[in-house]
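Example (one chain per record):
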Amino acid sequence: MIEKYRTIHPKTYLFIAAFLLLAAASTPATEHFPIFDELEPNVHFWKKVFTQYTTRQAIIHDADDLNIIYDVINLDDPDTPENKIINQQRVDTAKKKYRRILSLLLQKNNGETAETQRVATLFGEKTTRNRLSSAKANVRSQIGQSDRFLQGVIRSGAYLVTIKKILRNHGVPEDIAYLPHVESSFLPNAYSKLGATGMWQFTSATGRRFLKIDRYRDERLDPELSTRAAAAYLRENYDKLNDWPMAITAYNHGVGGMLRAKQKKGSFKNIFKSYNSRSFKFASRNFYAEFIAVRDIAKNIESYFGELKTAAPVPYHTWILPDNVMIGEISSHLKIPIVTLQMLNPALRSSVIKGSRAIPRNYGLRLPPRAKPFIDSYAAFTDNRIRTMAKKGGLYIVRKGDTAGKIARFHGITLASLIRANDLNPEATIYIDQKLTLPALVSRISSITEVSITGAVHHQKDRSLNRPAVYRSKNVAGLSHELHDAGNKRDEKAPGADPDMHARADHRPAYALNIVGEHDGLRLGRIQVMPEETLGHYTKWAKTDIRILHKLNGFTRQSVLKLHQDILIPIKKGGGDKFVFLRHAYHQNLQDTFFAQYRVENTIAYRVKPGDNVWRLAQIIFNVPLWLIDRYNPHVDLTQLKHSQKLMIPQVQRIV
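Predicted structure:
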């Protein structure tokens, strides 16, 4: 007998899938986030970090057993450059003290003192010489976070409802909404000196997988958009690892690394207890424990900090722009201050906020709810805008024989501002009958005071100024669009930065690609490795395979790029200029993001000390990007620092 089966409607499958996602998101937290015995001391340690000790205290502890805390030392205000050096010296002195005590405990006749006895007691009577020896190499410091965490809790009130809803919709457990306490203290514009940006601390490479990062916007800075990206990324991690502790750890360590760890150890518990690799160190091992700690504290906040009043969500209405529009025009027409538009739309680049570049068509612009009725009058506003611009000179229609440089000179504006306002390509190509916005004039028409861009702006070479207008070609336009979407190429420094500080820095990084030969029908270009670059970047910019790069340069999977190292790049026909452009755009984007939030206050002269290396100076002592130190020391080989060598260190201050 043949049994008949009823066909299931496709919508039923969608319903089942949605149900399973919601069920996964609503499963009890204890099932998603287990806490085993070996993890508890680490969770307890991080609870102390986030509730008991402030950023003016450093905990000196053992990196393997977080029950062992040698001391807690006081620090000075960490926001001043001088104090950063003083604080690091105090931490280094304390760590040396306890390494010395551990050395004494390893000796038979150690001349026991009250302090050595106290330290010995921390390890218990059954400790071994091997344990003490490993402890000597594992003395670590941790800065307290309670004051920073408390501010993060207050900020989180504006976002948690939205974040939890987005996580549920992606089938991600709601409790992961507390992860930004670890990543950024819920600062939407948080910036890591390693380049991670926003509340969810996306790097540029990972961010571009889920978000738009270009010359108009950096969506990593938008709490809602970046949360959608984080939810998608975490769900992707879980789908590959089938374990939420692993998926969370992969957010820090990378899903590839966690897949290798899972293959070797099986469970997260075993990974936590005994997995080691070159990159799986203290931060990765403790990331899940940190999350569990902040989640528990945040869900029981009154037990730790008493009653708190948190920030309230800010309501808004989203308007999908039907055309490219300058922010000053919107501000003028809708009677909304630019500062309000900037607050509601944190992803917009500073060049857009200052009116140097239009908000792009189809952008979801957030407006106060009261502005919704005015949007209906946009069509009439647009017609009037074009008539007004044409009448007063804010709009120019390109004629045969025009060049971008000629138009800019005639109207008394810079070529750079004309390029930015009209999305022109690096060669400033224009087309007959093209309508160009003249940014400075539009600013005056809109009654918006023009904000001058301080600092050096690189002007195009003569070939750009003299390129005549042409009839539009789809191929040329397509290439222009592709190149522009690669990144923000704005050559300006941040508002508020000291022009003299920038003048003393080297503004001519070696983006050059020197052709040195051929290989398998491809030209070979030689470059020097610059800060923040990886082999992954080179494969993307050159559109090649990483295995080819390995072969050309004699690399293995374990090879590590060194600053200013020579690298051979295979270049396809016509790909050299594009490689250079994409590389420059990447670095310009790093700088734009940094200088939107920091300014260089001054520089100090620093003499290299024994044990110094450039990574330690950049990330630990001075907390500034490596590329910034590289810029201020163009004639110094930072990979071969010498004792007493003089370095110029830029001192930065947050401006937002």
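Caption: Confidence is low (pLDDT under 50) at residues 1-8, 441-465, 472-508.
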